[in-house]
Amino acid sequence: MHVKDIMSTDFHIASPQTTLRQAAEMMRDGDFGYLPVGDGVKLKGAVTDRDIVIRAVAAGMGPDTHLSDVMSETIVYCFEDDDLREAADVMKREQIRRLAVLNDSKRLVGVITLGDIARADEQRLAGEIELQVAQI
């Protein structure tokens, strides 16, 4: 199974000038915890709900602080045609729970989470078990 088979294509991109309050509202309203940050052409970084708490709130930053002040500037990503195991290996190596998904042109086309992979593996395992039982 490939990343594109289970990734979410329902994502938002914030600008580096988006405030913490705006980002938190977007996360709340969209029920997600990962927000890619870009300038419309290129990804500049990403911010998570954890980043907002640990890097901003715990450091005393206010709600009008820009994402550019707290975002991770390194984008960890995989490609949409990668195998799920490759994406899981990247998450394990980088100790993260979410990955940006890029196409061959290095454009953001989705986001994949550890939960997405877990659900997909459960479905695959269930399918393998059904196949084995059918052969008995």
UniProtKB/TrEMBL annotation:
Alphabetized UniProt keyword annotations: CBS domain, Repeat
Name of a matching Pfam family: CBS
The keyword Repeat is annotated on this UniProt entry: yes
Annotated ranges, domain CBS: 7-65, 71-127
Highest taxon of source: Bacteria
Record InterPro entries: CBS_dom (IPR000644), CBS_dom_sf (IPR046342), CBS_domain-containing (IPR051462)
Protein name, as recorded: CBS domain-containing protein
